[in-house]
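Hey, can you fold this?
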Amino acid sequence: LKGFVYWEPNYLLLPFDGPSVATIHDISHLRMPEHHPSARITEMNTHLPHTLARATRLIAVSAFTRNEIISCLKPTQPIDIVSPGVDRTFFDISAQDCLGVKGRHNLPPEFILSVATLEPRKNLVRLVEAFAALPESLRSRYPLVLAGSRGWHTHKIESLINPLLSSGQVRLPGYVDQADMPALYSSATLLAYVSLYEGFGMPIAEAMAAGTAVLTSATSAMPEVASGHATLVDPEDTHAIQQQLFHLLTHPDERNLQAQSARQHANTFDWAHSAQQLLHSLQAAQQEHNQ
């Protein structure tokens, strides 16, 4: 097909006789294979080399991921950075929206929010352990809401949260429809997103846009996304996570100041800018293919 550029937004290129660009979101299948289903590791290790052999250009979603691709995959083609944007609905949430989402999902007035598939790389075991170490008064006032679908290797996290479910200190709304996500973030007292490894970390940007303070990991791409507007913590240090949760929950003025600055920073995650960067990458791929 002449005049066309094939963009693959999710890693693995299909056969195409023309210029092609593939987006690689992270390389966690190489860095943390033990945290993925074995079938996914086999698929990535089998097919990603074909993508690297065929792609005219690659796209990374962060500078961190670009460096990871270079370090681990050693590609021969150029890598462009095209970070995702945040929809404007996350910036404009009414009190009525928040009341509605709390009612639909049976949520308390205040809560700690986690947005993640229930799977090991999201580090939910340490988050729950840190939460369980908080004083009873804080756990009762600010329950931990784990929003996300059930993933894989969930036995440990489920055994940990079961005792806290009966007391209502942990809530499991499961998958939350995208239409409810802006108000869910806005309703939260803070977002706790202490993943072990991320190529970007979309919940960080979305929570900041919604005006909610963020506790996130000082590893991989998460500090890049937070850009000084979130509290960073070592995700492998459960005690440190507990300390930072306690600090943010007991210092509302500091938490609110952080949320305000974060909301301003979130304006940089603009879909129009992302689309322009993607267009530049596709145009460059076409020009290179035609030379």
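Oh, and this one too while you're at it.
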Amino acid sequence: MKRILMTIGIALAMPAAAAESAAPNAAPTLAQALERAWQRAPVARALPARREQAAAEAQAAAAWTPAPPTVSLATLNDRLSERRGRSEWEAEVSVPLWLPRQREAQRALADADAQRVDATAAAARLQLAGELRGAWWALAAARDRAALASARLEAARALQADVDRRFRVGELARTDANVALAEVRAQEGEIADARRAEQAAHDALQGLTGAPAPDVLAAEAATDASVAAPHPDLAAAESTLRSARSRLELAERSARAAPEVALRLLRERDDSGMRAVQAAGVRLSVPLASPPRLLRETAAQRAEIAEAQTQAERVRERLALDIAAARRELAAAELQGATAAERAALAADTLQLLQKSFALGESDLATLLRARAAAFDAQADVRRQATARAAAQSRINQALGVLP
């Protein structure tokens, strides 16, 4: 019976002892895991190209003309008809011009788009952090369950060995031996299911990071909400709104097509054989405004602004609700952790008393098994609430927009 008590005591303390024995710096942190996952994310790999596109838009807005100049060349002669030597050559260089305040609007749009690229990337990184945090603590919970199942199996085997020995010497009935063996088989099935769930959770985390999960899943530190930076989701929504407003401003400044100024060179020889005549000139074209075209383009931009404003408002509301829910979850986990620790202490004391009573023949096996199950459940609840508290702290950080 001393061996059984020692086995059960070690089994009950197994999850905590395993965590304490591991070196704190022996495994990657959640921040390092996020960096690995971000390097594999499609958004991260496309980010340099998107930044390059934003830089190109800024360069285009800083140019002297809204579009590149065009060069045209034309010729006309009578070689296919009369062949009298008539010929005409014309060359033209056309340069488009900015409309009033159009260039400033284009620059503002380029700046807004560049900010939107970075803000969208930050929001995507935070979203990936949320997925990683969920997988991180799902694996921690699965490991707790597997460790508890292993502890239960070891304790059940130790108890079954003692019951079988006492059955062979006639101290216990065969029904007790059958019950003890059935308990071992039940725990074997439980540990198989727990290990399957643990492997599935491990694969989910590895699918994000591309590397095996660390042996130690460290908790995050608490974040002071008063010093937290603006939430990336809200920053992304506001940057989308700024970009939409800049597009509307540019559409209003582009009510007509760009005017053009052209330099024309003409060289002409008629059929009289006289010397060729050369001429130079300037052409200026100013397109007229089109109210229907302007209304069509600005209406689309106003609709985009309305959607962006609504989205930003929804993001603010969601963030406030997420922060409040995460804080309630953390408070509940702390309260439940305290009650679970007290319950585990009581269950362990009861189990020790019933172990002595069973060894003396004063209580039956069924009572002992119920007490042992209660002790294991209480210890499992302690580990579960510790993991739940760490997960709740991660959710608060996620709601505040803080990366690991």
